[in-house]
Each structure stands twice: as structure tokens, then as C-alpha cells.
Amino acid sequence: MIAAILWLQPAIESGPAAFGQPAPEAPVREPGKETAKDGAKGEPADPALVAAKAGVELCLRDMEQAALKGDKAAWLACVDQRDSEFTHEQTYFANDLTKKKPEAITLSVEGLELGAGGEGRGGAQGKVTFVWNMPGKRERRVGFDARFVEHDGRWLYAGEVWQMHEAAGVQVLCDPGLEELADRTVKAFERVRKKVEAGFELSESPLATRTQKIKLYGSMRHLQQSICLSYSDGLEGWNEPNESVKLLANKSSTVETLSALLAHEYGHVATFAMGPHANEMPWWIEEGVAELSREGAVGGDDASETVETWAQQGRLAEWKDLADFDNCPPRLQPFVYVQGHHMLGYISEQFGRHKRNQWLTLMAQGKTLDEATREAFGRGFEQLDKEWRESLPRAVGQPPLPEEKPPAPKLPQPEPRPMTPEPPVAVPGLDHPMPK
Ligand SMILES: [Zn+2]
What we know:
Layout: H1 2-18, H2 47-69, H3 72-76, H4 84-99, E1 104-114, E2 124-133, E3 140-151, E4 154-160, E5 163-167, E6 170-174, H5 179-199, E7 212-217, H6 220-227, E8 237-238, E9 245-248, H7 255-272, H8 283-298, H9 304-312, H10 333-364, H11 369-377, H12 381-390
Parallel strand pairs: 6-7, 7-9
Antiparallel strand pairs: 1-2, 2-3, 3-4, 5-6, 8-9
Zinc ion binds at residues 264, 268, 287, 290, 435-436.
């Protein structure tokens, strides 16, 4: 139905002008000039709907201008901020606008209907389409059903119209048509939750009794758009502090593949629960521990084979080049995940789970990498890196290590490597694209 309206619209707009007649007085996208008719039958329009359409159009124009100017405050002024996770998601979106403005953006809504705002405050929903391009990049287009709500006389963007599935401790919100996947997601979350929490030693923390919100996206384009306009890398999942976990799901997603994705993403949630500065620790640590969380909860690749091969080929990356999410070149992103995963596994084997979590917590509380490494492991990070590299195969053509070097000190009774003591289960299909 909505598609039919979309296709009809250009034909109407191009009619009179094509025959040399004056252009229509009221362009469809201009607010406040709605016709008084509701549809093809010529019935009187619902005044509330006419007002809603005008208000929503104003909101969309304001959002366009805010995006073009990279104006965070102006963008957030267009957003309904009563849902704290959606507000955090939109704040991330708006922060990105301040760094990366689109060159052009058009927002449109079709098929707006009243009564979808919920919470007894009125509202409307319709199909919103984002069309934009970043400087020098191709045009991108994403459409989805979205809500708008009226608040203090102004219409605000309230995000996607989600189908809600609830179970104990978890809410799954999904694109329409993904309801069966929501059930699988609930099962997957129940399978991995306690294992991830145990790996971070957070089983007794508030995290363990929280209701976790998970959003399922039916297309990668939609998931990317929900993050920010500039994001175009491939991904299967996403999480930032105080946001919902976001997953890409399709009909072929099984409980097993969803468990692996969730163990990674919930690993991020657990990391963020360790302290207010968790998102400032080097990116390779965030992804490394999330991959270790995935390995601990569902098994699968432990990164050894790949990292040992890289070591033999002399291709290991410098940690400083893997630290900054915003400035990490695409060719190094696999190293963020795989090399980071290997280092987190090495740390777990050398010092044990508790020391590893202490190290993470120190950084999450604001310590630098070197400070946390000295406090938790009794050596600076440069020394730890040296020991890690020496534990790996030597690169071909590289001289052997000097023999007088003493072995690296170990703490007594190191714990086994995994985050949790489950036997490994192979999980295929996680190599690419990388989850955030
Ligand atoms: Zn991740």
C-alpha cells in the first residue's frame, strides 16, 4: 500500500508543469499547506491528522537542517527523549553529525496515521525514508515505519515502530516480519547471559537482574542508519553504553548464530557496566574482550591460528594503531578483533580471570592502559606486549631471542583461558562482517 503511494506521488507532481501550466501551489513536502481532503474520495480530512502531518513535516525539515549543519543540539531537539536508550542512540547519531555532516539529506514520510504514539499522549506513524549522501560518497536510502509524538505543541521523531516480544529479563524489539526471530533471540539470550556475566564476575551485580533490550534489524542498511549517517562498514551487531543491543537478523539466523552474536554484544554491555570510562579504553580491548566473551559462552575460534600466522609473517599490528575506533583504517580492523582477542586470551592464561577483570575495571574507572597494566599485572604495557610477542612464533628471518632472558613471571594458579568453563562448540559464519 505504501509503495503504491510512493509511486503515485511523482506522477501527480509532474503533471501540470509538464504541460506548461503553473506549478502546483503547495508542494507536498511543504508544511502547513495540506489540502483539506483526506484522500481520493474527497472526504473531509481529519483536522487532527492535517495538523499532525504539518507538525511531522516541520520536524523532518528541522532534522534535515540539523544534519546539514552538523548541529547536535538541533537534531536532539527534534527527538522524543522519553526513552533513555533511544535518546542515547540518537545522541551517538547526533555526535557523529558534528564530525561528519552529510552533503545532502532528504527525509520524507508517507501514509501517516494517527493513534500510534502510545502512552496516551497521541502520536502518529508512517513510513519514513532517509535519503542522503556523505561527501564524495554514493547516495544511500533507507525506509522504515517510524513514530512521531506531539510534545509541548511540537512533533518529535520517536524512532522505529517495533514489534515487542518480552520474556523474563529481556525485551526483543524487531522489524515487522521478524517475530519468529525474536523468539530465537530470547532463547539465545537465555543461553548466554549467565555465562557472560560469570566471565566478567558480574553475576551478583545489578547487570544480572536488569531487563536487557535487544533490537533486531532486518537489513544491514537499516542497522547502519540507526547508528549514524556516516556508518557504512559491514556489521552484524552493535552496542554502545546505555544503548540497546542491536543485531542484524534474517530468516537464516539460528539460535546458535544469534547466541554467538549476543555473547559478543552482551560482552560489550558487561564491559560498559564496569565503570563510566569503559568506552574510552582502547578499541582492541573492547573488541578483544567481547570476542573472548563469545568464545567463553559458545566456543569457536580462539584466534590462535590466525595470530600465530600473522606473527610468522611479521604482520602483527602495533596496539596504538588499533586503539581508536574513529581513526582505525579498514585494513587494520580485523586485527582489532582477532589480535585483541588473542591478547585478552593470553592475559587470561597468564594472570587469570580475576586479574584480567581487575585490569578492565581499572581502565573502566579511568586509569590509562599503562597504569592499569602496572597495577593489575605488576609491569608496564610495553613489557606485557614484549612478553606476548615473545610467546608467539618468530617471524621468518627474525633472529632468535637472546638466551639469557629470564622467563616471564607468572602468577600462581592461572585460570583456564575461557571466560566461562564451557566446552567449546564450533560456531561458523562469524568471520565477516565483524560485529562492533
Ligand atoms: Zn564488538
